[in-house]
TrEMBL record:
PANTHER family: CCA TRNA NUCLEOTIDYLTRANSFERASE, MITOCHONDRIAL, TRNA-NUCLEOTIDYLTRANSFERASE. GO terms for biological process: tRNA 3'-terminal CCA addition. Residues 1-25 form the signal peptide. One of its GO terms (molecular function) is RNA binding. Keywords: RNA-binding, Signal. This is Uncharacterized protein.
Amino acid sequence: MMHGADPVMALRLLHRLRIFGAVFAVPPSVTMGLSEDAFGAAANRLAVSAYDEMQAWSHPEAGFDQDARRRCMMAAVLLPIADLQVPVTKGKPMSAAYHVVRESLKWKAKDAEAVDALHTTAPELVAVYRQLLGQPDGMPAPEELRVRLGHCIRRLKQLWPAGCVVASLLHSNPEYGGEITDQAPGAAALAAAALSGLESTDGEPDMPGTQRRLDFCEALLSAATAYGIAGCWQWKPLLDGKQVMAAVGMKSGGPALGKLMEAAVEWQLAHPDGTAEQCREHLQAQHAAAQQAAGME
């Protein structure tokens, strides 16, 4: 289906034959009133948008290999259930999207994890985009914005262009909060929005809508390039664990070391051209401040 020459047509046929819900099976107990017809309609609408967007995005750094395409398409298809959880016997509940990919479709665990990551990161990328729009022209981006975008890129790695596509779907539809909140879409609202415009999935491509979503993606990609963090998921740490421990005089690891390692990553994202020595000095100052604050308690 997603591996074939025309995944959009395959999805349409599943919906028209009324077997979409049997293929993308979600436990009835967690659907929260989302009907099979509404789910199929929403999924088709989003799949068409994602497919058109990937086809039209010609930026050299936005290449989609076969795995990226099918994972992006799957994330779009399952966006209507991104906020639903499936209880498990032991451990934390799994997302409904993970359940469908792993249990219903029998895809590999890494595919389910990738779809989950795309869903989780989409609201964060929407928030970054909004923050970018509020930046005055010619003003340097605040460190917090560079770090926030960098974390999204690090989480998605080579899938981050696909993350932009999924985030653009979230942002472009006000019916499920893309213009108002950073939360994942509500299943019922998203399905209603998709049903209201379903007829267009059988007609000509929605060129204005596709262009708006491409503008969204280009804004994020351009920002990452301008900030020097587009390839941050491939960076090596400026300091390893032993070097961090030596810098602050720690004798053993633990949660405190973990926090310092996270601080080192954030400093590197905020200062892409920074050196290991500068990072070391930053960690020493941060550790000293934390020690002083602890001593005052």
